[in-house]
């Protein structure tokens, strides 16, 4: 994808937009003219970045004028392109642009939950195994910045459905879908469309590339046209035995039997690793995916035991913040789906839990989550834009609950109820945009409250 002598429009100027600008401004002799379109107020620092790169800020607030004024548009993932499909020939996705210029093997990971932890842990393990590993995508490092890095052995990308939705070229060497639960239905409208966006991670793969997929999704996956070598995984085959009938002989399968991960293909079985060797750092389901990926990448799974003491999760994923007056605080701000919050609650069942629940549901009904939380948590403290509705749902199923407008107010209510031996868990099961810029800002706010409590 050699782009020269074009008017290029960059729509959105967050992490992705700035990465795109750096990429194009570093192209020599391209004679491209670059414009940035940002519907939010641009800071002085952002404006300086634009000017320094030789680009300009598009002045109109009308997206149509911006699209029509440029030859090519690269939009940040959060921008919904559906209203502008008549201009589809102008749009290029970030992942397609990356794929055509990145020269080394790519592992791409998507899913409703677990993808951030899996990306970080797999990246650390590959590095520990001696591979020069690039890690980026939807986790803070713009993927186009990785193109300028020195030679790599492997790149591991976390990708959202937004990043994959309109991809037409992207074909990673190993495509991983962690799971599929209701999420982002405010954007995708239906689960079929949500899965279709996710499935673009493998639709362009060739017959020498691989996909690693949940066995629970085999019916959906059988409807995806791909040439890749498929491998499925399942923690509990007893609940998915009927799905085994849909496997093709050439499909691989990773599953657990007698506390051992086993790989089966063409009716041949191989023991991979004992599940007792999984570190407690993350969920067992995440470790099954990580082990399966290592096996497919021909990296000895023994690296897990060798690196166990050095592995760390990124912030805001069931992060233990502090213990004060016998009360332990956990920051799980990254949990923006009901499944992630339920997993966090289940992981902390040793002591009473006071759960801070809030944010925006993204079109997902959180009533089933609250019903499941009955008996698992001491009480729920609802905050944010949907606090009243969450509080009402708690009342319907008889979960002790409180509600307030802000996270700080809910925290204060929580501290009036908590006592020594209890746990305070921020795991909102919703997006942060009602009150915060992103989940990181929300998590940092909670951490400051916890650290300052009692001072």
| Major pleated sheet | 9 strands, mixed
**SS field, number of helical segments:** 16
Radius of gyration: 23 Å
Distance from first to last alpha carbon: 57 Å
Structural class, from helix and strand content?
Answer: alpha/beta
Please state the average pLDDT score.
93
What best-fitting shape do the alpha-carbon axes yield?
A: globular
Percent strand equals 15-25%
Give start-end ranges of low-pLDDT stretches: none
**What's the arrangement of strands in the largest beta sheet?**
6-7-5-8-9-10-11-12-13
What secondary-structure arrangement, pairings included, does this model have?
Blueprint: E1 7-11, H1 15-25, E2 33-37, H2 44-52, E3 56-57, H3 63-69, E4 72-75, H4 94-101, E5 106-110, H5 115-128, E6 133-137, E7 154-158, H6 161-164, E8 174-177, H7 185-188, H8 191-199, E9 210-214, H9 218-221, E10 229-234, E11 252-257, E12 260-265, E13 268-274, H10 284-296, H11 303-307, E14 319-324, E15 327-331, H12 338-347, E16 353-358, H13 367-373, E17 379-383, H14 387-397, E18 401-403, H15 407-417, E19 423-426, H16 439-452
Parallel strand pairs: 1-2, 1-4, 2-3, 5-7, 5-8, 6-7, 8-9, 9-10, 10-11, 15-19, 16-17, 16-19, 17-18
Antiparallel strand pairs: 11-12, 12-13, 14-15
